[in-house]
Amino acid sequence: MSFTLPELHYDYAALEPHIDAKTMEIHHSKHHNAYVTNLNNAIGGTAGEGKNIIELQEMMSHLPVAIRNNGGGHYNHSLFWELISPNGGGNPSGELAEAIDKDFGSFDEFKTAFANAATTRFGSGWAWLVYKDGKLAVCSTANQDNPLMDIPEANGGGGRPLMALDVWEHAYYLNYQNRRPDYISAFWNVIDWTEVAGKYRMASH
Ligand code: MN3
């Protein structure tokens, strides 16, 4: 069984003007597709063969670096596409909103902490909202690493990912060039809080 590129639930142009169609097309059909292809090519004969994408992250310390890079890339992007939506934006509600207020002080303070993690990640990587030890936390990881990986120096402190933002230049350069902070600001218009809340519920109950 091999890994496959997931279909998006929206058109490449659906997130404009916040994320442009050309970026979405290249990001999904070229970058993510290459991670899937390279993962499938790398996994044969390793201990990861036959494992699902979550299991792979959790045993990454035992796997070749090609699986760390491409298996991380496949997991991270599959999550990212689920978390953004043309119907996104606004504010979280319900239990998630209460947890954000409790653990960060307010929604605005959470946004500042998350944007700071995304802005200060040097080079390529990801910013995360995770659920860990009964609390919400923000962190970032380099390259295609993520909080699920069993590699302490790479997983940003670990935890269950609830929300992810790709801050590789390929995620924003066509539209935003060097202006990563503008891309991070635009992300708040496409984040789907219903998806984040669902992941929070699964992680916390
Ligand atoms: Mn990417």
Question: Can you characterise this structure?
Answer:
It is globular, with a radius of gyration of 16 Å. Helix 1 packs antiparallel against helix 3 (65-83) and helix 4 (94-104) crosses helix 5 (107-120). With 205 residues, it is mainly alpha-helical. 47% of the residues lie in helices and 11% in strands. The protein has a three-stranded antiparallel sheet with strand order 2-1-3. It has eight helices and three strands. The chain has helices at residues 21-43, 53-58, 65-83, 94-104, 107-120, 173-176, 180-187, 193-204; strands at residues 125-132, 135-142, 160-166. The chain binds manganese (III) ion (MN3). Residues 27, 31, 77, 166, 168, 170-171 line the site of manganese (III) ion (MN3).
Name some characteristics of this structure:
205 residues; mainly alpha; three-stranded antiparallel sheet; binds manganese (III) ion
- Radius of gyration from the CA trace? 16 Å
Low-confidence stretches are none
Q: What is the mean pLDDT?
A: 97
The first-to-last residue Cα distance is 31 Å
Helix content: 40-55%
User: Structural class given helices, strands, pairing?
Assistant: mainly alpha
The counted number of beta strands is 3
The number of helical runs is: 8
Question: How much strand content do the residues show?
Answer: 5-15%
Could you say which overall geometry the principal axes of the C-alpha atoms support?
A: globular
Strand order of the largest sheet: 2-1-3
**Distinct compounds present:** manganese (III) ion
- List the helices and strands in order: HHHHHEEEHHH
Largest sheet: 3 strands, antiparallel
